[in-house]
Amino acid sequence: MIQFPYRPRWLSRSLLCAMLPAALCLQPSVASEFEEEDLRIARELRELALTRNGGFDVVEDLTTRIGPRMAGTEADARAVAWGEALLNDLGFDRVWLQPVTFPTWHRNLEVARIVSPVEFNFAALALGFSPATPAGGVEAEVVMFDDLDALEAADPTEVEGRIVFVRNRMERSRDGSTYGPAVRARSVGAQLAAQKGGVAYMIRSIGTSTNRFAHTGTQRFDVGVRSLPAVAISNPDADHLERLVAGDEPVRLHIEVDAEYVEAYTSHNVIGEITGSEMPEQIVALGAHLDSWDVGTGALDDGAGIAIITEAARLIMQREERPKRSIHVIYFAAEEIGLWGGRVWAEEHNQAGTMPNVQLGAESDFGAGPIYAISARVSDEAWPVIQAIQAELAPLGIELGGRSASGGPDFIPAAPFGMAAVDLRQDGTHYFDYHHTENDTLDKIDPEQLAQNAAAYAVLAWLSAQSPISFGSGPGLINQSR
Amino acid sequence: MIQFPYRPRWLSRSLLCAMLPAALCLQPSVASEFEEEDLRIARELRELALTRNGGFDVVEDLTTRIGPRMAGTEADARAVAWGEALLNDLGFDRVWLQPVTFPTWHRNLEVARIVSPVEFNFAALALGFSPATPAGGVEAEVVMFDDLDALEAADPTEVEGRIVFVRNRMERSRDGSTYGPAVRARSVGAQLAAQKGGVAYMIRSIGTSTNRFAHTGTQRFDVGVRSLPAVAISNPDADHLERLVAGDEPVRLHIEVDAEYVEAYTSHNVIGEITGSEMPEQIVALGAHLDSWDVGTGALDDGAGIAIITEAARLIMQREERPKRSIHVIYFAAEEIGLWGGRVWAEEHNQAGTMPNVQLGAESDFGAGPIYAISARVSDEAWPVIQAIQAELAPLGIELGGRSASGGPDFIPAAPFGMAAVDLRQDGTHYFDYHHTENDTLDKIDPEQLAQNAAAYAVLAWLSAQSPISFGSGPGLINQSR
Predict the structure, then answer these.
(1) A329-357 residues labelled b (16+ CB within 10 A) or e (exposed)
(2) How far is CA A401 from the centre of its chain?
(3) Which of A231, A347, A477, B75 could pair covalently with B69 via S-S, beta carbons 3.0-4.6 A apart?
């Protein structure tokens, strides 16, 4: 392996190679091997990050000065302006907006209560894209199902004219893997209940909190397909309803929803670039989403992610050394209601033919719990680089994960185009106690855990930018799963 | 010490003494010594209680079939009927209602929000006896004070025309001693702010929850004294407001309250008696309150207390042996808004001259946390009996506390009449996470902890009923404090 210990700063290995006959410019014998200086800088970034607040100032400002910022609201526009100003203030080399157009939905009112045998008001939230009830609401007897499979199996005569309640409970898990199976009841249940003749739809919240917070979230929205007014009630309220349904008397509910469907609104992805010194066209893409639900202040979802990637980039920008590849910080638009920002970003790279330039996509969108593993969808050749990066993350308690990764929700649309992706997997044990509820507020973020996240993203971004090889974005990674 | 090991059941020690010349009927050398059989029964009660659910069925039924039951509402009347039916069904020897008349208050609406510099809706609850705002609410700049002392010290020119916000935070404690100092801001703050010319009053909730639940509760209500519309906001919301107040711009709030004052409503204490076999006129008075706040389902406050004392009495009633003294289970009315049930109970005993017959008053009204100590306000002669009772409670993890006790909120009005009182002190570390919030629901009760409570009350009630001596209610205990 050739070393250039006395090489001047401006004389990079790639520039040197360009100046020499190819045979003389041997690649390092191990392609994954980072230059010592790059490793030293990664370690310094990591240690410095742990002495700081992880970008808590960023999420504090976002949640306090903007607050909830549902896609398509006035606050969405203020958040975009906030993000653009922040990235400019921080000294990114380039900052730009990428228009994103999407349908959206606004909540005006939701009421859900037991009418008989005993009156009781639920803690409830309408689900995203719920149609409104007639003014004054609907009242009907409830029919309860254990889960969506039971509803699917039900005879329509059981459902007709009833309010359908699906009671399945989301279990707690570190990796969040219990969310997917449970959330189907939210995503597609109302359409199914409509097909069977129900008059309204209600679910136990898809969350692990034992507090009286209902969990909202989007539903599959198919233009022209009939759906039902749909609400979620909190876990304690679902327990309460189940106790009454278990009794002898029929249980009648009243549900009222007022909400509006908005056909098209244009928001923006906000993108800041630290321009690479040697391969500026190559992009290390760090993402988080700027929009939130309309309840709470979107602190964990996804103010934390905004803070983490911003702090990681800020740490790198504060050094004299520039990364070889460009680093992009992307504040995605309208994630919550359909990954719209991610779709636009992926489509534009695909159409421009620049997806192979994306070294990796990695989004922080799972709260502020500590990262415990790194997984990656990269080429076989690049996997040793990921292993080398993990070695620098190990002091943060981060293990080597597997070879499948999505990169996070907003990078899912890039998967069909073969984008390399890295997941820094966070401990989500408590994430679903707050996710999509009124209770997702700043105080739920632990600055020390936030700093661990920022440290990991700084190391990942820096070393990915300095990597001796590409991570392999392109057709070879499409549908790759190991 | 004289033992009557072969004495027939019907021949009690006191009856025997009445039949013999006084000199022959020696008192036991240690007045506190229980008969072996009484101790054996106490131990059996204790052990059996731990195998049961502590009365969870009772609080489950109360919270589910009645739900919230604010004093003076339709649900209050349903709760009284529920309680009367329950005590009759359980086979109490006598069950009766004691009318209790009081002023009350009903919440219709509360809205509290930041208008500028950034709009934000608070999680808020009006405080009990808050007057209404004018329709449409009031809007004004906020002035923030660290605590009530700071408000007291403030020059009226700081307050005039403003919405007053007092930000003091209740700290967590096992014994709940941090509640009293903090709650003054709720009890008397609005009247003070009115005197200084404020237009509305707002506090940080008097609770320890970090969730977005506001804490309601009563305020001092003096007829004819001007007060202000008053609300509490949750801890995270108070943090949010403080962050904005710390900024450069003035912060304007909007508060709207609609509520009604009700001059007089008559509810009832519900009382069940296990009639004593030897001293039926002597009363072991176990209390809990049947009313709750109008938010949540009053599970911890005070459905748990209702469950605990009911289960303790049920355990005793299920035995063949009868207690020597009578045991009263009292479901007090209208505790939350002014200890009205307790006042009537105390006054009636006082006027009837029967307070000296009250062996003790002990109310369970601090949730369902485990009991860790027994304290008592009893005569010097009776203190060794309390020590002997504590010895039987020790296997439950209950230590001997001190010689001051209130008996619980509803027995406070009996203190001026010299009632002996026992406190079974519960661990309240988490009580103020739920107290007086929407989140006080059944799932917050741990049946095992509830059973520990029921075990302790069963042992206390049984041994107090069998005690060889009176605990000393009467003039000698007035204002006694050690």
Answers:
(1) bbbbbbbbbbbbbbbbbbeebbeeeebbb
(2) 19
(3) B75
Q: Is A443 on the interface with B (CB under 8 A)?
A: yes
Enumerate residues 6+ apart whose C-beta is below 8 A from A157: none
Output the pLDDT for position B223: 78
* Whether A430 contacts chain B with CB within 8 A: no
Residue A454 CB contacts under 8 Å (≥ 6 apart), including other chains: A49, A52, A54, A55, A307, A308, A311, A312, A315
A297 at B interface, C-beta within 8 A: yes
Please tell me the distance from the alpha carbon of residue B453 to that of residue B390, in angstroms, as a whole number: 14
Read off the tokens for A253: 């509910």
Amino acid identity of residue A190, one-letter, is A
Q: In chain A, what residues touch B119 (CB-CB under 8 Å)?
A: 67
Interface contact A441-B213, CB threshold 8 A: no
User: In which residue are the tokens 């002035």 written?
Assistant: B143
B118:A64 CB<8 A = yes
> Rounded distance, CA B147 to CA B164, Å?
11
Considering CB atoms only, which of B65, B118, B236 is closest to A443? Answer: B236
pLDDT tens for B143-173 read: 999 999 999 999 999 999 999 999 999 999 9
B9 pLDDT higher than 50: no
Q: Is A169 on the interface with B (CB under 8 A)?
A: no
Residue-level pLDDT at B480: 63
Backbone φ and ψ for B340, nearest 5 degrees, come out as -70, -40
pTM of the model: 0.91
Tell me the average pLDDT of chain B. 93
Which residue, among B212, B234, B300, B443, would best test binding to A if mutated, counting the most A CBs under 10 Å from its CB? Answer: B212
d(CA B302, CA B397): 23
- The Cα–Cα gap between B459 and B456 comes to 5
Q: What is the DSSP string of B70-100?
A: -TTSHHHHHHHHHHHHHHHHHT-SEEEEEEE
Q: Which residues are paired to B162 by β-bridges?
A: none
CB atoms within 10 A of CB B423: 22
Bridge partners of residue A233, in order along the sequence: A124, A204
The Cα A371–Cα A461 span in angstroms is 15
Mutation target for B interface from A234, A441, A445: give the one with most B CBs within 10 A: A441
Residue A309 has pLDDT above 80, yes or no: yes
Residue B273's nearest CA partner among B410, B407, B98, B96 is B96
pLDDT of residue B19: 52
* Cα distance from N-terminal residue to C-terminal residue, chain B: 31
Stretch B430-444: mean pLDDT, rounded? 98
Q: Does A302 sit behind a cis peptide bond, omega within 30 degrees of 0 on the bond before it?
A: yes
Contact state of B123 with A438 under an 8 Å Cβ cutoff: yes
pLDDT at residue A10 tops 60: no
Interface A-B, measured as beta-carbon pairs within 8 A, has a size of 67
Identify the H or E element spanning B284: strand B279-289
Closest CA to B147 of B104, B221, B98, B206: B206
Q: What is the CA angle B120-A135-A71, rounded to 5? A: 35
A119 at interface of B, judged by CB pairs closer than 8 A: yes
Structure tokens at B373: 């100590």
Chain A within 8 Å of B212 (Cβ-Cβ)?
Answer: yes
Contact flag B438-A67 (C-beta cutoff 8 Å): no
CA distance A51 to A217: 36
CA–CA distance, A153 with A171 (Å, rounded to integer): 23
Burial B208-226 (b: 16+ CB within 10 A, else e): bbebbbbbbbbbebeeeee
Domains of chain B and any CATH numbers:
31-93+275-477 (3.40.630.10), 104-261 (3.50.30.30)
pLDDT at residue A29 greater than cutoff 90: no
CB atoms within 10 A of CB A243: 16
* Beta pairing partners, B138: B255
